[in-house]
Amino acid sequence: MDRSFINKYYPLYIESAVLTVTIGCMGIILSVIIGMLCALCRYYKIPILNAIAAAYTELSRNTPLIVQLFFLFFGLPKAGIVLSPEVCGTVGLAFLGGGYMSESFLSGLVSVKKTHLEAAASLGLNELQTMTNVVFPQAASVSAPAVCANVIFLLKETSVFSAVSLADLMYTAKDLIGMYYSTTEALTMLVIAYLIMILPVSIVFTLLERRMHRAGI
Amino acid sequence: MNEDIVIEVKGLKKVFGENVIINGIDLTVRKGETVVLIGPSGCGKSTLLRCLNGLEPIQGGSVFLHGEPVEYGKRSLNKIRQKIGMVFQDYGLFPHMTVLDNVMLAPLKVQKRPKDEVKTEAMALLERVGLGDKAKSYPSQLSGGQQQRAAIVRSLVVNPDIMLLDEITAALDPEMVHEVLNVVLDLAKNGSTMIIVTHEMAFAEAVADRVILMDGGVIVEENPPQKFFHDADTERAKKFLSTFSYSK
Predict the structure, then answer these.
(1) What is the ipTM of this complex?
(2) What ranges make up the beta strands (E) of B157-209?
Protein backbone atom coordinates (compact mmCIF):
# COMPACT_ATOMS: atom_id res chain seq x y z
CA MET A 1 0.00 0.00 0.00
CA ASP A 2 1.45 3.33 -1.09
CA ARG A 3 0.81 5.88 1.68
CA SER A 4 2.04 8.82 -0.39
CA PHE A 5 -0.49 7.97 -3.09
CA ILE A 6 -3.27 8.17 -0.54
CA ASN A 7 -1.99 11.46 0.85
CA LYS A 8 -1.78 12.90 -2.62
CA TYR A 9 -5.18 11.92 -3.93
CA TYR A 10 -7.55 11.93 -0.94
CA PRO A 11 -8.70 15.53 -1.70
CA LEU A 12 -10.11 14.20 -4.99
CA TYR A 13 -12.23 11.78 -2.97
CA ILE A 14 -13.52 14.54 -0.73
CA GLU A 15 -14.47 16.58 -3.76
CA SER A 16 -16.34 13.73 -5.39
CA ALA A 17 -17.90 12.69 -2.07
CA VAL A 18 -19.43 16.16 -1.81
CA LEU A 19 -20.97 15.68 -5.24
CA THR A 20 -22.26 12.22 -4.30
CA VAL A 21 -23.78 13.50 -1.06
CA THR A 22 -25.33 16.57 -2.70
CA ILE A 23 -27.02 14.64 -5.48
CA GLY A 24 -27.84 11.80 -3.11
CA CYS A 25 -29.57 14.14 -0.65
CA MET A 26 -31.52 15.98 -3.32
CA GLY A 27 -32.62 12.69 -4.87
CA ILE A 28 -33.64 11.28 -1.50
CA ILE A 29 -35.61 14.38 -0.48
CA LEU A 30 -37.44 14.28 -3.80
CA SER A 31 -38.07 10.55 -3.45
CA VAL A 32 -39.59 11.09 0.00
CA ILE A 33 -41.96 13.72 -1.41
CA ILE A 34 -42.88 11.56 -4.42
CA GLY A 35 -43.28 8.51 -2.18
CA MET A 36 -45.61 10.33 0.23
CA LEU A 37 -47.79 11.68 -2.57
CA CYS A 38 -48.01 8.27 -4.25
CA ALA A 39 -48.77 6.52 -0.96
CA LEU A 40 -51.57 9.02 -0.21
CA CYS A 41 -53.06 8.60 -3.70
CA ARG A 42 -53.07 4.84 -3.22
CA TYR A 43 -54.29 4.87 0.41
CA TYR A 44 -57.22 7.18 -0.30
CA LYS A 45 -57.81 5.40 -3.65
CA ILE A 46 -58.03 8.68 -5.54
CA PRO A 47 -59.41 7.82 -9.00
CA ILE A 48 -56.87 7.75 -11.87
CA LEU A 49 -54.01 9.00 -9.63
CA ASN A 50 -54.24 5.73 -7.70
CA ALA A 51 -53.64 3.72 -10.88
CA ILE A 52 -50.84 6.01 -12.04
CA ALA A 53 -49.11 5.80 -8.66
CA ALA A 54 -49.38 2.01 -8.60
CA ALA A 55 -48.02 1.67 -12.15
CA TYR A 56 -45.18 4.07 -11.40
CA THR A 57 -44.25 2.16 -8.24
CA GLU A 58 -43.99 -1.10 -10.15
CA LEU A 59 -42.02 0.50 -12.99
CA SER A 60 -39.51 2.19 -10.72
CA ARG A 61 -39.00 -0.78 -8.40
CA ASN A 62 -38.67 -3.38 -11.10
CA THR A 63 -36.09 -1.72 -13.34
CA PRO A 64 -32.43 -1.16 -12.38
CA LEU A 65 -31.24 2.35 -11.61
CA ILE A 66 -28.58 2.12 -14.29
CA VAL A 67 -31.22 1.42 -16.93
CA GLN A 68 -33.29 4.36 -15.69
CA LEU A 69 -30.22 6.61 -15.85
CA PHE A 70 -29.33 5.43 -19.36
CA PHE A 71 -32.86 6.19 -20.46
CA LEU A 72 -32.63 9.72 -19.04
CA PHE A 73 -29.12 10.40 -20.31
CA PHE A 74 -28.99 8.63 -23.67
CA GLY A 75 -32.64 7.97 -24.52
CA LEU A 76 -34.29 11.32 -23.86
CA PRO A 77 -31.86 13.48 -25.92
CA LYS A 78 -33.03 11.62 -29.03
CA ALA A 79 -36.51 12.84 -28.16
CA GLY A 80 -35.19 16.37 -27.79
CA ILE A 81 -34.85 16.45 -24.00
CA VAL A 82 -31.25 17.00 -22.94
CA LEU A 83 -30.49 16.77 -19.22
CA SER A 84 -27.18 17.52 -17.51
CA PRO A 85 -25.51 14.59 -15.71
CA GLU A 86 -26.35 16.21 -12.35
CA VAL A 87 -30.03 16.49 -13.21
CA CYS A 88 -30.00 12.93 -14.59
CA GLY A 89 -28.52 11.62 -11.35
CA THR A 90 -31.00 13.50 -9.16
CA VAL A 91 -34.04 12.63 -11.25
CA GLY A 92 -32.95 8.99 -11.64
CA LEU A 93 -32.44 8.55 -7.91
CA ALA A 94 -35.74 10.29 -7.13
CA PHE A 95 -37.53 8.09 -9.67
CA LEU A 96 -36.13 4.89 -8.21
CA GLY A 97 -36.46 6.01 -4.59
CA GLY A 98 -39.99 7.34 -5.03
CA GLY A 99 -41.24 3.83 -5.76
CA TYR A 100 -39.56 2.32 -2.73
CA MET A 101 -40.63 5.18 -0.47
CA SER A 102 -44.21 4.91 -1.73
CA GLU A 103 -44.33 1.24 -0.69
CA SER A 104 -42.84 2.01 2.72
CA PHE A 105 -45.24 4.86 3.46
CA LEU A 106 -48.21 2.86 2.20
CA SER A 107 -47.36 -0.06 4.48
CA GLY A 108 -47.44 2.35 7.42
CA LEU A 109 -50.78 3.85 6.38
CA VAL A 110 -52.52 0.50 5.91
CA SER A 111 -51.23 -0.69 9.28
CA VAL A 112 -53.53 1.75 11.08
CA LYS A 113 -56.43 -0.30 12.43
CA LYS A 114 -59.95 0.23 11.14
CA THR A 115 -61.21 0.58 14.72
CA HIS A 116 -58.98 3.62 15.16
CA LEU A 117 -60.46 5.25 12.07
CA GLU A 118 -63.96 4.47 13.29
CA ALA A 119 -63.15 5.68 16.79
CA ALA A 120 -61.85 8.94 15.33
CA ALA A 121 -64.97 9.29 13.19
CA SER A 122 -67.24 8.65 16.18
CA LEU A 123 -65.43 11.34 18.13
CA GLY A 124 -66.43 13.77 15.38
CA LEU A 125 -62.95 14.27 13.92
CA ASN A 126 -63.04 15.26 10.25
CA GLU A 127 -60.84 13.65 7.57
CA LEU A 128 -57.97 16.07 8.01
CA GLN A 129 -58.01 15.87 11.82
CA THR A 130 -58.10 12.09 11.62
CA MET A 131 -55.15 12.11 9.24
CA THR A 132 -52.95 14.40 11.31
CA ASN A 133 -53.87 13.17 14.78
CA VAL A 134 -54.54 9.47 14.30
CA VAL A 135 -53.27 8.09 10.98
CA PHE A 136 -49.95 9.86 10.39
CA PRO A 137 -48.39 9.45 13.85
CA GLN A 138 -49.14 5.72 13.84
CA ALA A 139 -48.13 5.25 10.20
CA ALA A 140 -44.87 7.13 10.75
CA SER A 141 -43.61 4.78 13.43
CA VAL A 142 -44.43 1.73 11.28
CA SER A 143 -42.86 3.24 8.15
CA ALA A 144 -39.77 4.66 9.80
CA PRO A 145 -37.52 1.55 9.72
CA ALA A 146 -38.32 0.88 6.06
CA VAL A 147 -37.82 4.52 5.09
CA CYS A 148 -34.45 4.56 6.86
CA ALA A 149 -33.42 1.38 5.06
CA ASN A 150 -34.42 3.03 1.77
CA VAL A 151 -32.28 6.08 2.49
CA ILE A 152 -29.22 3.90 3.04
CA PHE A 153 -30.04 1.81 -0.02
CA LEU A 154 -30.37 4.95 -2.17
CA LEU A 155 -27.10 6.40 -0.88
CA LYS A 156 -25.39 3.20 -1.98
CA GLU A 157 -27.15 3.25 -5.35
CA THR A 158 -25.42 6.57 -6.12
CA SER A 159 -22.37 4.45 -7.01
CA VAL A 160 -23.75 3.91 -10.52
CA PHE A 161 -23.80 7.65 -11.26
CA SER A 162 -20.44 7.42 -13.02
CA ALA A 163 -22.29 5.68 -15.86
CA VAL A 164 -23.73 9.06 -16.88
CA SER A 165 -20.31 10.72 -16.50
CA LEU A 166 -20.96 12.22 -13.08
CA ALA A 167 -17.62 12.63 -11.29
CA ASP A 168 -18.76 10.83 -8.16
CA LEU A 169 -16.70 8.62 -5.82
CA MET A 170 -16.85 5.58 -8.06
CA TYR A 171 -15.80 7.66 -11.05
CA THR A 172 -12.81 9.08 -9.18
CA ALA A 173 -11.65 5.63 -8.08
CA LYS A 174 -11.98 4.19 -11.58
CA ASP A 175 -10.12 7.20 -12.95
CA LEU A 176 -7.19 6.76 -10.58
CA ILE A 177 -7.00 3.04 -11.30
CA GLY A 178 -6.99 3.77 -15.03
CA MET A 179 -4.28 6.39 -14.78
CA TYR A 180 -1.91 4.95 -12.17
CA TYR A 181 -2.88 1.28 -11.87
CA SER A 182 -2.97 1.70 -8.06
CA THR A 183 -5.97 -0.54 -7.64
CA THR A 184 -5.52 -1.42 -3.97
CA GLU A 185 -5.08 2.15 -2.76
CA ALA A 186 -7.86 3.58 -4.92
CA LEU A 187 -10.40 0.94 -3.90
CA THR A 188 -9.43 1.05 -0.21
CA MET A 189 -10.05 4.79 -0.21
CA LEU A 190 -13.35 4.18 -2.02
CA VAL A 191 -14.56 1.73 0.62
CA ILE A 192 -13.54 4.07 3.43
CA ALA A 193 -15.21 7.04 1.74
CA TYR A 194 -18.53 5.19 1.48
CA LEU A 195 -18.25 4.00 5.07
CA ILE A 196 -17.60 7.53 6.31
CA MET A 197 -20.67 8.73 4.41
CA ILE A 198 -23.13 5.99 5.23
CA LEU A 199 -22.13 4.55 8.62
CA PRO A 200 -23.09 7.70 10.59
CA VAL A 201 -26.49 7.77 8.87
CA SER A 202 -26.96 4.13 9.76
CA ILE A 203 -26.03 4.69 13.42
CA VAL A 204 -28.30 7.73 13.77
CA PHE A 205 -31.23 5.77 12.33
CA THR A 206 -30.61 2.86 14.69
CA LEU A 207 -30.60 5.20 17.68
CA LEU A 208 -33.77 6.92 16.47
CA GLU A 209 -35.55 3.61 16.05
CA ARG A 210 -34.52 2.54 19.52
CA ARG A 211 -35.89 5.76 20.95
CA MET A 212 -39.21 5.40 19.15
CA HIS A 213 -39.41 1.84 20.34
CA ARG A 214 -38.85 2.93 23.93
CA ALA A 215 -41.55 5.56 23.67
CA GLY A 216 -43.87 2.64 22.97
CA ILE A 217 -45.09 4.02 19.68
CA MET B 1 -91.97 16.83 17.83
CA ASN B 2 -91.31 15.36 21.23
CA GLU B 3 -88.31 17.01 22.92
CA ASP B 4 -87.65 13.87 24.90
CA ILE B 5 -86.84 11.70 21.90
CA VAL B 6 -83.08 11.37 21.43
CA ILE B 7 -82.87 8.79 18.68
CA GLU B 8 -85.57 7.76 16.29
CA VAL B 9 -85.15 4.96 13.76
CA LYS B 10 -87.78 4.39 11.09
CA GLY B 11 -87.91 1.34 8.82
CA LEU B 12 -84.13 0.87 8.86
CA LYS B 13 -82.80 -1.55 6.27
CA LYS B 14 -79.21 -2.67 5.84
CA VAL B 15 -77.98 -5.05 3.15
CA PHE B 16 -74.49 -6.50 2.67
CA GLY B 17 -74.34 -7.91 -0.84
CA GLU B 18 -77.15 -10.44 -0.91
CA ASN B 19 -77.50 -10.69 2.86
CA VAL B 20 -80.20 -8.63 4.50
CA ILE B 21 -78.71 -7.73 7.89
CA ILE B 22 -81.39 -5.39 9.14
CA ASN B 23 -84.84 -5.78 7.70
CA GLY B 24 -86.99 -2.88 8.74
CA ILE B 25 -86.43 -1.74 12.31
CA ASP B 26 -88.29 0.99 14.18
CA LEU B 27 -86.81 2.19 17.43
CA THR B 28 -87.28 5.22 19.63
CA VAL B 29 -85.00 6.04 22.55
CA ARG B 30 -85.94 8.76 25.01
CA LYS B 31 -83.75 10.92 27.18
CA GLY B 32 -82.36 9.09 30.21
CA GLU B 33 -83.38 5.69 28.91
CA THR B 34 -81.10 2.66 28.81
CA VAL B 35 -81.97 0.23 26.05
CA VAL B 36 -80.23 -3.14 25.90
CA LEU B 37 -80.02 -4.99 22.59
CA ILE B 38 -79.52 -8.72 22.78
CA GLY B 39 -79.72 -11.55 20.30
CA PRO B 40 -77.71 -14.35 18.73
CA SER B 41 -74.48 -13.54 16.87
CA GLY B 42 -75.11 -12.16 13.41
CA CYS B 43 -78.61 -10.97 14.24
CA GLY B 44 -77.71 -7.41 13.25
CA LYS B 45 -77.49 -5.76 16.66
CA SER B 46 -73.95 -4.42 16.24
CA THR B 47 -74.73 -3.34 12.70
CA LEU B 48 -77.80 -1.47 13.98
CA LEU B 49 -75.59 0.39 16.45
CA ARG B 50 -73.09 1.26 13.72
CA CYS B 51 -75.89 2.60 11.51
CA LEU B 52 -76.98 4.91 14.32
CA ASN B 53 -73.85 7.04 14.06
CA GLY B 54 -73.37 6.70 10.36
CA LEU B 55 -70.50 4.22 10.28
CA GLU B 56 -72.46 2.12 7.78
CA PRO B 57 -74.37 3.19 4.68
CA ILE B 58 -78.02 2.14 4.93
CA GLN B 59 -80.24 0.88 2.14
CA GLY B 60 -83.57 2.04 3.45
CA GLY B 61 -85.33 3.91 6.22
CA SER B 62 -83.89 6.73 8.27
CA VAL B 63 -82.18 7.60 11.55
CA PHE B 64 -82.73 10.87 13.40
CA LEU B 65 -80.84 12.35 16.32
CA HIS B 66 -82.97 15.05 17.95
CA GLY B 67 -84.83 15.30 14.66
CA GLU B 68 -81.69 15.75 12.57
CA PRO B 69 -81.06 13.05 9.95
CA VAL B 70 -77.95 10.91 10.41
CA GLU B 71 -76.70 10.30 6.88
CA TYR B 72 -73.67 8.22 5.95
CA GLY B 73 -70.93 10.11 4.15
CA LYS B 74 -72.50 13.55 4.66
CA ARG B 75 -70.49 16.47 5.93
CA SER B 76 -73.06 17.18 8.63
CA LEU B 77 -72.18 13.80 10.13
CA ASN B 78 -69.12 15.09 12.01
CA LYS B 79 -71.31 17.51 13.89
CA ILE B 80 -73.93 14.91 14.75
CA ARG B 81 -71.31 12.39 15.83
CA GLN B 82 -70.09 14.77 18.53
CA LYS B 83 -73.42 14.15 20.21
CA ILE B 84 -73.13 10.38 19.94
CA GLY B 85 -70.53 8.60 22.06
CA MET B 86 -69.49 5.21 20.76
CA VAL B 87 -67.45 2.58 22.61
CA PHE B 88 -66.10 -0.39 20.66
CA GLN B 89 -65.42 -4.01 21.54
CA ASP B 90 -61.67 -3.61 20.99
CA TYR B 91 -61.42 -0.25 22.81
CA GLY B 92 -59.98 1.76 19.89
CA LEU B 93 -57.71 3.86 22.10
CA PHE B 94 -55.02 5.54 20.02
CA PRO B 95 -51.77 3.76 20.94
CA HIS B 96 -49.46 6.73 20.34
CA MET B 97 -51.21 8.95 22.88
CA THR B 98 -51.40 8.78 26.65
CA VAL B 99 -54.75 8.01 28.23
CA LEU B 100 -55.22 11.69 29.06
CA ASP B 101 -54.38 12.78 25.49
CA ASN B 102 -56.82 10.21 24.14
CA VAL B 103 -59.54 11.63 26.36
CA MET B 104 -58.72 15.27 25.58
CA LEU B 105 -58.43 14.86 21.79
CA ALA B 106 -62.06 15.42 20.82
CA PRO B 107 -62.82 18.27 23.26
CA LEU B 108 -59.68 20.12 22.14
CA LYS B 109 -59.66 19.46 18.40
CA VAL B 110 -63.34 19.07 17.61
CA GLN B 111 -65.10 21.15 20.24
CA LYS B 112 -62.21 23.64 20.56
CA ARG B 113 -62.72 24.04 24.29
CA PRO B 114 -60.03 25.65 26.49
CA LYS B 115 -57.32 23.22 27.54
CA ASP B 116 -57.42 23.89 31.31
CA GLU B 117 -61.14 23.31 31.52
CA VAL B 118 -60.91 20.11 29.45
CA LYS B 119 -58.04 18.77 31.51
CA THR B 120 -59.88 19.32 34.77
CA GLU B 121 -62.97 17.57 33.46
CA ALA B 122 -60.96 14.72 31.91
CA MET B 123 -59.09 14.09 35.15
CA ALA B 124 -62.32 14.17 37.16
CA LEU B 125 -63.87 11.56 34.86
CA LEU B 126 -60.76 9.39 34.95
CA GLU B 127 -60.82 9.56 38.75
CA ARG B 128 -64.47 8.58 38.70
CA VAL B 129 -63.71 5.34 36.82
CA GLY B 130 -60.62 4.68 38.97
CA LEU B 131 -57.98 5.63 36.42
CA GLY B 132 -56.69 8.83 37.97
CA ASP B 133 -53.19 7.38 38.35
CA LYS B 134 -53.14 6.08 34.75
CA ALA B 135 -53.66 9.40 32.99
CA LYS B 136 -50.05 9.61 31.85
CA SER B 137 -49.82 5.93 30.82
CA TYR B 138 -50.00 4.65 27.27
CA PRO B 139 -52.83 2.26 26.36
CA SER B 140 -50.36 -0.63 25.94
CA GLN B 141 -49.46 -0.28 29.63
CA LEU B 142 -53.06 -0.81 30.73
CA SER B 143 -55.12 -3.97 31.21
CA GLY B 144 -58.08 -4.58 28.91
CA GLY B 145 -60.53 -3.48 31.56
CA GLN B 146 -58.61 -0.29 32.22
CA GLN B 147 -58.42 0.44 28.48
CA GLN B 148 -62.14 -0.02 28.10
CA ARG B 149 -62.87 2.28 31.05
CA ALA B 150 -60.57 4.88 29.46
CA ALA B 151 -62.44 4.46 26.17
CA ILE B 152 -65.74 5.07 27.97
CA VAL B 153 -64.33 8.26 29.48
CA ARG B 154 -63.12 9.36 26.04
CA SER B 155 -66.67 9.10 24.69
CA LEU B 156 -68.15 10.65 27.79
CA VAL B 157 -65.99 13.76 27.98
CA VAL B 158 -67.71 15.41 24.98
CA ASN B 159 -71.04 15.23 26.87
CA PRO B 160 -72.85 13.19 24.24
CA ASP B 161 -76.64 13.06 24.09
CA ILE B 162 -76.46 9.30 23.80
CA MET B 163 -73.87 6.57 24.30
CA LEU B 164 -73.67 3.50 22.08
CA LEU B 165 -71.82 0.58 23.67
CA ASP B 166 -70.97 -2.23 21.26
CA GLU B 167 -70.19 -5.46 23.13
CA ILE B 168 -67.72 -3.58 25.26
CA THR B 169 -66.86 -6.53 27.50
CA ALA B 170 -66.64 -9.20 24.79
CA ALA B 171 -62.84 -9.00 24.56
CA LEU B 172 -62.23 -8.90 28.31
CA ASP B 173 -61.17 -11.47 30.89
CA PRO B 174 -64.11 -12.42 33.13
CA GLU B 175 -62.56 -10.65 36.12
CA MET B 176 -62.35 -7.38 34.23
CA VAL B 177 -65.88 -7.49 32.92
CA HIS B 178 -67.22 -6.45 36.30
CA GLU B 179 -65.17 -3.28 36.67
CA VAL B 180 -66.28 -2.07 33.24
CA LEU B 181 -69.93 -2.92 33.74
CA ASN B 182 -69.94 -1.13 37.11
CA VAL B 183 -68.94 2.05 35.30
CA VAL B 184 -71.81 1.61 32.85
CA LEU B 185 -74.27 0.85 35.65
CA ASP B 186 -73.17 4.03 37.37
CA LEU B 187 -73.79 6.01 34.17
CA ALA B 188 -77.25 4.52 33.77
CA LYS B 189 -78.15 5.44 37.35
CA ASN B 190 -77.06 8.99 36.72
CA GLY B 191 -79.43 9.38 33.82
CA SER B 192 -77.23 8.80 30.77
CA THR B 193 -79.08 7.82 27.62
CA MET B 194 -77.59 4.60 26.30
CA ILE B 195 -78.04 1.80 23.82
CA ILE B 196 -76.06 -1.24 24.90
CA VAL B 197 -75.30 -4.35 22.89
CA THR B 198 -74.23 -7.13 25.22
CA HIS B 199 -74.11 -10.86 25.88
CA GLU B 200 -74.04 -10.38 29.66
CA MET B 201 -77.60 -11.27 30.63
CA ALA B 202 -77.32 -10.53 34.36
CA PHE B 203 -75.94 -7.12 33.51
CA ALA B 204 -78.64 -6.54 30.91
CA GLU B 205 -81.31 -7.20 33.50
CA ALA B 206 -79.67 -4.88 36.02
CA VAL B 207 -79.02 -1.94 33.72
CA ALA B 208 -81.89 -1.92 31.22
CA ASP B 209 -85.06 0.11 31.22
CA ARG B 210 -86.06 -1.80 28.13
CA VAL B 211 -84.71 -4.99 26.57
CA ILE B 212 -84.89 -5.65 22.86
CA LEU B 213 -84.32 -9.08 21.36
CA MET B 214 -83.22 -9.07 17.75
CA ASP B 215 -83.07 -12.04 15.41
CA GLY B 216 -82.71 -12.23 11.65
CA GLY B 217 -82.55 -8.47 11.30
CA VAL B 218 -85.85 -7.69 13.00
CA ILE B 219 -87.03 -6.94 16.54
CA VAL B 220 -88.56 -10.10 17.99
CA GLU B 221 -89.50 -8.87 21.41
CA GLU B 222 -89.35 -5.60 23.29
CA ASN B 223 -90.17 -5.50 27.01
CA PRO B 224 -89.05 -4.15 30.40
CA PRO B 225 -86.29 -6.38 31.86
CA GLN B 226 -88.45 -7.83 34.64
CA LYS B 227 -90.99 -9.06 32.12
CA PHE B 228 -88.48 -10.07 29.46
CA PHE B 229 -86.22 -12.21 31.61
CA HIS B 230 -88.91 -13.89 33.72
CA ASP B 231 -92.05 -13.97 31.62
CA ALA B 232 -91.14 -13.41 27.99
CA ASP B 233 -93.96 -13.05 25.51
CA THR B 234 -92.40 -14.93 22.61
CA GLU B 235 -91.16 -18.49 22.27
CA ARG B 236 -88.06 -17.12 20.50
CA ALA B 237 -87.10 -15.11 23.57
CA LYS B 238 -87.63 -18.06 25.89
CA LYS B 239 -85.51 -20.26 23.66
CA PHE B 240 -82.77 -17.63 23.48
CA LEU B 241 -82.73 -17.16 27.25
CA SER B 242 -82.65 -20.90 27.87
CA THR B 243 -79.24 -21.10 26.15
CA PHE B 244 -77.82 -19.15 29.09
CA SER B 245 -78.91 -21.55 31.80
CA TYR B 246 -77.51 -24.99 32.56
CA SER B 247 -79.10 -27.92 34.34
CA LYS B 248 -77.86 -31.43 34.93
Answers:
(1) 0.86
(2) 162-166, 194-197
